[in-house]
Amino acid sequence: MAAFLQKPIAPHQRDLGQRLGVLMLSGNEIREWCQHLTNGVPAPGYFEESAYDEYATSWAKLGTNGLAEYLRTDYWFHFDFRNLQNVIVHLRKAVGKLSGNETWHKIIAWDSAAHLSLTIFDLCRQVRMLGLSSIGDTTASYLFGGPASLKARRDLYARVQQLLSSTGVVAQGGPALPPLDPPYSQALAELAIRFIERPHSAILIPLIVQDNLWRLLGAEGVPPRDEKNFLAAEKLTQDLLDFLKNAAGATWAPRV
Fold first, then answer.
1. 100 and 19 share one domain
2. Number of domains into which the chain is organized
3. Do 124 and 4 share a structural domain?
4. Of 151, 162, 186, 253, which has the most beta carbons under 10 Å away?
């Protein structure tokens, strides 16, 4: 989608966008669409401009580089293992600025969790295709970009280990190479199992994350529910937040 906020779209641009599969919208069209969505609604919720202003301000406090830039741009080019690893790496670099004592700290944590949940759904899809019995290997394979890439890395790791052992650099009982798999691999596999076991609850996670995010921004969001799937989804959402906290090395996580 391409949006031109300050000027109308020429007919030839709209035709070109249609041929390329790109939706072209002008600023007036976007405003009319938003007004149509909130027409007659006393509390527009997610569509309050002030909420978006505060959301943008929260990310500006963290800085435009690193996690903020990745989630805004690169994240949407990768629908695979790179997003999971990169979100965690960028968040790990930012945790020193996020004590959890300020509202904007929680906004960033909730927004990061929303993105991460989409990537974990992709991992769940891979596990479902290959079977729960091989979830350990499937998770490791996913994190390294596929079975071929994982095998190549493991072979290289073994050769380096053998070389260091033969030269006496790594002695038996002494220092060893760091493990190949990320330290959060096992926790990620366990989280994926919980998602897969409760699919009707897991699909509600993005909704719960967004509700908590926009409530921090003053928007009302969706009214609370007490359905069985919704309550289970809240538990799964907290599991996701706890995983993100531990994987990033943070000292706190938002509470559902």
1. no
2. 2
3. no
4. 253
The pLDDT assigned to 150 comes to 83
pLDDT grade for 89, boundaries at 50, 70 and 90: very high
Based on the domain organization, do 4 and 128 belong to the same domain? Answer: no
Q: Are 233 and 123 found together in one domain?
A: yes
User: What pLDDT score does 172 carry?
Assistant: 65
Instruction: Measure the CA–CA gap between 185 and 139, rounded to whole angstroms.
Output: 7
222 located within any domain: yes
Q: How far is CA 64 from CA 57, 69, 77, 94, 250, in A?
A: 11, 6, 18, 12, 20
Is residue 31 within a helix (H) or strand (E), and if so which, with residue range?
A: helix 27-37
Q: Is the pLDDT of residue 223 over 90?
A: no
Are residues 224 and 162 part of one domain?
A: yes
* pLDDT tens readout for residues 126-176: 898 888 888 888 898 888 888 888 888 888 888 887 887 777 766 666 566
Q: Hey, what amino acid is at 110?
A: W
Q: Is the pLDDT score of 111 beyond 90?
A: yes
User: Cα–Cα distance between 32 and 28 in angstroms, integer?
Assistant: 6
Sign of CA dihedral 182, 186, 187, 189: positive
Do 9 and 95 sit in the same domain of this protein?
Answer: no
- pLDDT of 115 reads 94
Residue 9 counted as domain residue: yes
Same domain, 129 and 77: yes
Whether residue 192 contacts residue 134, with contact meaning beta carbons closer than 8 Å, is answered with no
Longest CA span, the chain? 76
CA atoms within 13 A on the CB side of 72: 12
pLDDT of residue 154: 85
